[in-house]
Amino acid sequence: MHWSVWPCLSAFLLRGVVAANERVIQDPDTKLSFFSTYQPYKLENNKGITFRFAVPDAASSTGFDTVVQMVIPNEVGWAGLGWGGGMAQNPLLVVFRNSNNQGVLASSRWANGHVTPNTYTGATYTVYKAGTKINSTHWQVTAKCTGCTSWTSSGKKTVINPKGNNRFGWAYSLKKPTNPNSATSAIPIHDLGQYFEIDVGKGVNKDFTTLVGKLQ
Ligand code: HEM
């Protein structure tokens, strides 16, 4: 009896943790305002990944640049974000530390199904030194994406809603990519593929272009 209740209860607890951890943060490193969500992957030891989004005030329904920030436990080899809510047919971001764990790479990918994603040239990421760092427990990456909020697949154009909820997919693996010094490296399959919903419009920045222009 107890065992059949546990999966529902743990899903409920995980959702509670997620809702409690959605908030606006003012990032001291980039001076950007982000809307942040924490996605747990293990209840024990409080292991999870934080995803943060900063968007321009004039974010348009035809597509807009974003800055994404992720805070990731050191045990994680790669972490990923699916901009259109899943794995297939949407821009994918894959991030990982290099071989000496002193730098972070962002790789733009695309998959047409549940198969190893290929490099995707429709989106480009700029990783900034500001907001990208590694300490004894976590690594953090901050990157601008151009091309992540609109894409075309099978002739259909999709644009992320700049003000309102969107579903994102996310994934992580405890294993690193085969060659972590290359953004085009082969990557091993994830330990978990999951979803969250977030209103990226809550990460609005009136002076987005000026602030991002100052980042290196
Ligand atoms: C590296 C090779 C990859 C393979 C072989 C692969 C394979 C799969 C498979 C078989 C599933 C369905 C079963 C399951 O949930 O495990 C799945 C789901 C998922 N994958 Fe991947 N995956 C890969 C990489 C990625 C990457 C890089 C991302 C994100 C950046 C990603 C995001 C997801 C998400 C969000 C789901 C659940 C939602 C959905 O089905 O679309 N995957 N993947």
Keywords:
216 residues; mainly beta; Immunoglobulin-like; 6-stranded antiparallel β-sheet; 2 helices; 16 strands; 44% strand; globular; disordered N terminus; binds protoporphyrin IX containing FE; signal; DOMON domain-containing protein; Cellobiose_DH-like_cyt; DOMON_domain
Bound molecules: protoporphyrin IX containing FE
- CATH architecture, please? Sandwich
Terminal Cα span: 56 Å
What's the CATH topology label?
Immunoglobulin-like
> Which regions are unreliable across 5 or more consecutive residues at pLDDT < 50?
1-13
Determine the CATH superfamily.
Cellobiose dehydrogenase, cytochrome domain
Mean pLDDT: 92
**For the CA atoms, what is the radius of gyration?**
17 Å
Structural shape: globular
What is the percent of helical residues? 10-25%
Give me the secondary-structure category: mainly beta
User: What is the class in the CATH system?
Assistant: Mainly Beta
Number of domains: 1
Encode the helix/strand succession as letters: HEEEEEEEEEEEEEEEEH
Classify the beta-strand content into a percent band. Answer: 35-45%
| Count of strand segments | 16
The major sheet is characterized as:
8 strands, mixed
The number of helical segments is 2
